[in-house]
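Lab manual, section 2.4: Encoding a predicted structure.

Procedure: take the sequence of the chain (114 residues), apply the prediction step described in section 2.3, and record the output as structure tokens. A sample record is shown.
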Amino acid sequence: EVQIVESGGGLVQAGGSLRLSCVASGFTFEDYAIGWFRQVPGKERKGVSCINISDGKTYYADSVKGRFTISSDNAKNTVYLQMNSLKPEDTAVYYCATWTGEFWGQGIQVTVSS
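Recorded output:
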């Protein structure tokens, strides 16, 4: 059974930091790029960042470059998203998923207060 479980969300003040974790199981982790998407009510889900597990190459949306860092611990089938200098506009439900969309987590709320 495929499972993707996110953790680490919550409420933080603007300028603060959070680290999201994503633990995957039930598929071959190294065969995928794993990423984070986010969605606010009424808007489409957007890709934030991803990491290609096999070679470590990363991608960041312009809106988070320089503030967010994605990493992986392949031994633990875990991907992390370190989010620094958070802004109110980062408030969203964050989803961990395979970048091509086969498998998704349930989502986790991140709220940044001004």
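Check your result against the sample. The chain has a mean pLDDT of 97.
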